[in-house]
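Sequence in, structure out. Go.
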Amino acid sequence: MATKKKEILFEFPNPMDNDYLIGHRDTLKSFMDAWDNRDKYPVHPVWMLCGPRGIGKATLAYKIAKQVYGNVGDFFVIDLAHNLDDRGNIKTDAKKISVNTVRNMIERMQMSSMSGQWRVVLIDAVDELTVPAENAILKLLEEPPAQTLFLLVTHQLSAVLPTVRSRARVEKMHPLTIDELRELCLRFLGDEQISNDILKLSNGSFGKIANLKATGGDIIYEELLDVLHNKHSTASDLMDVAVKISMSPALYGIVLDAIAALGLADIYPDANQAISDINRLNLKADITIFKIINEMKKCL
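Output:
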């Protein structure tokens, strides 16, 4: 019997330390043009960088931040890695950024240097704020402090309060191209071979590729496609793949990705619901996934 593989997500280089930006030159140029002409025209104090996960939004945000605060200004980061509980301690297992984190940042801003240098507040990501935390940010954005730039990373624009969106200059960042993904793979995954199927599966997100590589999901995805396309595949073959996918909830999504890639739109809603029900109804993951794969096989 196969042993359960430990789920390890790819560890990106910290965006603060990573100057290797691929793509998004148009967004960077838009900001730099505004920043370089700030003496003539006031730069917008709130910039919202939105787009899918894993395309480099945070990397771009940190790159912009370094241009603004340099080594003399003040820099404040709000993210899950610096999330605080009611006692001011780091919450390592939180899935949402607390209002305590935002309030702590506001207090530190009030005590920050009066040197006249620019300050930067970087939030990664706005759609990970709790409702009280987002309301606290909104109050700050209603009257932004002088010489303070807010960089708001956003994965899903529709999840952000309209009142927050209305106060920001929204920059919509696009998924990476196949060539850009290849360049990132070469840079961060070394000589690992990334197939065209995986590149297409990623939908322009290097983060998705990296996490698939770290969990072995890329190999399992290839196996899934093989058993689906092989006319000699047996029920046992389908179950073997289903078992491998069931070992990690992070891999459930590759079944839906395969459905989309193969153009099986008719079965997508039922498959999506079945995968959602695995945790909600405590279903056996391997059996549920096997049934979906078997239905996919019938449709091909």
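Check: Strands lie at 46-50, 74-79, 119-124, 148-154, 169-172. The CA atoms of residues 20 and 187 lie 9 Å apart.
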